[in-house]
Design a protein that fits this description.
- The protein contains six helices and seven strands.
- By secondary structure, the chain is α/β, with parallel strands linked by helices.
- The chain has a single domain, classed as 3-Layer(aba) Sandwich (Rossmann fold).
Length: 208
């Protein structure tokens, strides 16, 4: 029986969660901004043991617009990628601080790895800035979480996100493969995604 792991991408609006996911899975980014309610991406990845494991990526709404849905998503996921905007760190990093606390409260003693991503690196000059060093220390030392700086638009460190997520979930990926199936047969059924329509969203909110 194949195993399945679910990862949620969480963060404020317009920090680039959807762009990171689509760059990771499809090597492209959306041409225009469209607010996300909830989208699930599913794909199969080949492991080092030549078997397949299912990985689901949940793209969520920004901010705490739908708190019940957010809590339900947190309870259903095995790992979390918290995304903030390097060009607007004060507001967007505060958001992931609150999200981290929510994850701790909802998951309790259950192990749930958290990866922190500072996106939009292309808009910040000098990666080794004082602000970034402080944020790196908070995440890496105080929180004990992996920290990656990325640019979804410029395709910077995107593969690192995939590698770290798999490592934190203890998925031993085939060395020559990546999430896009570049080894030739990494993806067994291809990438599938399901976007939550507004009508489906309203029906779900009635039962939360």
């Amino acid at each position: 029986m194949e195993s399945c792991s679910r990862v949620a991408f969480l963060g404020a609006k317009k920090v680039g969660k959807t762009c990171l996911i689509t760059q990771l899975l499809k090597k492209s980014v959306p041409t225009k901004y469209s607010p996300t309610i909830e989208t699930m991406f599913r794909y199969d990845i080949q492991t080092a043991e030549d078997s397949f494991t299912k990985l689901e990526i949940l793209d969520t709404a920004g901010n705490f617009e739908f708190p019940n849905m957010l809590k339900k998503a947190v309870r259903s996921c095995h790992a979390f990628v918290l995304v903030f905007d390097l060009s607007n760190p004060k507001q967007t990093f505060e958001e992931i601080e609150m999200l981290r606390q929510l994850i701790i409260e909802e998951k309790g003693t259950e192990y749930a790895p958290i990866i922190v991503i500072g996106n939009k690196k292309d808009l910040v000059y000098g990666q080794d800035s004082v602000d970034n060093n402080i944020l790196d220390a908070i995440v890496s030392i105080d929180w004990g979480c992996p920290y990656i700086t990325t640019s979804a638009i410029c395709k910077v460190n995107i593969s690192d996100v995939y590698t770290v997520v798999c490592k934190e979930l203890k998925i031993k990926i085939k060395h020559s493969s990546d999430v896009n199936g570049n080894s030739g047969n990494t993806t067994k059924h291809g990438v599938k995604h399901r976007r939550l329509s507004f009508s489906a969203f309203k029906r779900r909110m009635l039962v939360l």
